[in-house]
Design a protein that fits this description.
With about 140 residues, the chain is α+β, with helices and mostly antiparallel strands. The protein is built from two helices and eight strands; from the N terminus they run H-H-E-E-E-E-E-E-E-E. It has an eight-stranded antiparallel β-barrel.
């Protein structure tokens, strides 16, 4: 009799242990304004000024679900054209605002996610780097 009484108890404990070690899904994973929602590959265009010199750029970057960004672009600064790789981190808030930090460049951007997580607008936070950028999700690139 004692064996039968302990069996359900042990099974219950085993179930709790298995469930407690399973990865938890964040409530934000399905929110339209989250790192999960914007994960994928994006094309961007950038316009502005670097220390007063007209600057243009176009390229691609990839956002992952964990807040990392990697990309590259062709930058034209006053007629001097250079290919620039970049990487950094980003955050997305529940109100669709966010922040991107590219420490190697070094540029800090504020951003807003639009159009069902298919477009992102950026503005630089640096006084000598006056940039605005628009990024659109590339077709089929949802993470």
């Amino acid at each position: 009799m004692k064996t039968r009484t302990l069996t359900p108890f042990i099974a219950g404990i085993a179930t709790l242990l298995v469930l407690s070690t399973a990865p938890a899904l964040s409530a934000d994973d399905n929110h339209p304004c989250s790192t999960h929602a914007v994960a994928g590959t994006w094309g961007f265009s950038l316009t502005g000024q670097l220390d007063g010199t007209p600057t243009l750029a176009a390229g691609q970057f990839t956002l992952d679900r964990y807040g990392n960004v990697d990309g590259a672009g062709t930058f034209n600064v006053g007629g001097d054209v250079t290919d620039v790789p970049f990487s950094g981190t980003y955050t997305v808030n529940a109100d669709c605002s966010g922040h991107m930090s590219l420490p190697d460049t070094p540029i800090e951007y504020d951003m807003v996610v639009l159009a069902g997580s298919n477009e992102i607008l950026f503005v630089s936070r640096d006084t000598s780097l006056v940039f605005a950028a628009d990024a659109k999700r590339l077709p089929g690139s949802g993470d």
